[in-house]
Design brief:
Layout (H helix, E strand, L loop, with lengths): L8 E4 L5 H11 L6 H9 L3 E7 L6 E9 L3 E9 L8 H13 L6 E7 L3 H9 L3 E6 L10 E6 L7
Parallel strand pairs: 4-5
Antiparallel strand pairs: 1-2, 2-3, 3-4, 5-7, 6-7
Bound molecules: coenzyme A.
Amino acid sequence: MSATANKVDFRRLELRDLTAIETIERASYSTPWSRSMFAGELAKPSSISLGAFEPDSRELLGFLIISRYVDAWHVMNLAVAPEHRRKRIATSLLERLFELTAGEGRRGYTLEVRISNDVAIRLYEQAGFKARGIRRGYYTDNREDALIMWRDPEPHRA
Ligand SMILES: CC(C)(COP(=O)(O)OP(=O)(O)OC[C@H]1O[C@@H](n2cnc3c(N)ncnc32)[C@H](O)[C@@H]1OP(=O)(O)O)[C@@H](O)C(=O)NCCC(=O)NCCS
């Protein structure tokens, strides 16, 4: 269950990372978040923004942002630089977040993903998420449906 990416450091994202975040975001999404959306998430006390970095160069390889709601943690954004994909960086980011939030009120985890995004759906399934519903026409750019996925809370660790 604990596959980890080789030679990757994790730390919270900071404002100085915004340019690197934007570069990965633009390479990853047809409708990327704006810089101010990221700045807003980084500033929110109810969000956790985590980056995966190459240890020597300190290059940002990928990031994950989750936000705490009453019932659950919501995955807001996850992306890995195209040239660093398929090295389990996204999996390691998710696992690190599960560790960081274990036992916190026993909230589960939820997310929406484009129904056509087979790669991400497979990643989330491998990380323990299960499909629980569809939001019709959720994505405003092409009216694509969203698959709603949930993962149970982490067991509490004393
Ligand atoms: C989705 C994304 C974050 C995956 O990042 P990643 O670091 O490459 O993912 P991982 O290496 O941890 O992959 C974990 C598993 O996901 C699946 N997976 C990942 N990339 C895949 C691909 N190109 N083809 C098929 N399966 C894939 C596999 O099951 C993989 O496990 P395996 O390598 O043991 O077979 C990355 O492709 C990305 O940034 N995509 C664009 C943005 C996006 O779609 N984000 C999610 C939106 S909700």
